[in-house]
Amino acid sequence: MSIKSIKEGYLVDIRPNGVKGKRFRKKFAIKSEAIQYEKWILSQYHNKEWLNPPSDRRKLSELIELWWKYYGQLMKSGRSALLKLKRIDKDMGYPTINRLDARSISDYRIVRIEKGIKPKTINRELSALSGMFISLIESGHFNQANPIREVSALKTFEHEMGYLTKEQCLLLIENLKGLELLAVKLCLNTGARWGEVLSLTGNQVRNGKATFVNGKNGRNRTVPISQNLEGELCDIKEMKLFNGVSYDNIRKNIQKVAPNLPKGQALHVLRHTFASHFIMNGGNILTLQKLLGHSSIQQTMKYAHLAPDYLLDAIRLNPLAEK
């Protein structure tokens, strides 16, 4: 008998796979708990479904719809992730789940690279796909291993980060007027993202501060602004301050005053410009992290090399330095 009465209560002593199999011994104060444990052990060892799970033949598109219903639509970046997932599904020929493995994912990456897509973009796409599977596994909507788990990210290299000189900033301001001018001034004064500027309302500007709500990491942050800038913002009568501002016109003017900027930065260069000049003028890197709303100091450290005294000890402490 596998359950024995002992002085301390009850002892479960069982070998579910026979005399030569693994032995399980556990003490319990009451008999009902011992019986439940015995049943659990037996069920674990006699249920062999996990050895050969049935192949999941659902279409990837079905899982994307499930993910969107239970997770994606609740995420701040859900719409962007959904577009990535649908692009993967289309480019892979609308596959079934059982066709997704390391090889098919690697083939997909090669096709994307041959189309000129950057490794960083491809990594983001596959990160969205992996995140989808992780969410579905956690919720019980997908009962197999994450097919992306064995695919390592493509190696990427740091790209050049451009910013406007003070002269270019002044020239840009001269070329703009109205709300476009004010939007650019706000970016250069606060390091705000373009989306944060567009969503700014009159209620978020008061007491010499601009509060940007629900930023990229979902947090709010408040940045001090000058009295003059606050006055200009408060003069706008619309609730949403920058309705109708032309992204394209500002981008064209930036390209006009700084034609040699690295590709792909567009209006984000205004945020880089704020951060770069803040550090070059002696600003503290931890303060900059708070102003930019970075969740990690590693994100902000990309500006550290612009500090006036950055690595100057290399001159003073190298082996040929004059003592």
From TrEMBL:
Keyword 4Fe-4S in record: no
Entry keywords, A to Z: DNA integration, DNA recombination, DNA-binding
Listed name of the protein: Tyrosine-type recombinase/integrase
Species name: Proteus alimentorum
Record-annotated Tyr recombinase domain positions: 159-316
Occurrences of domain Core-binding (CB) (ranges): 58-137
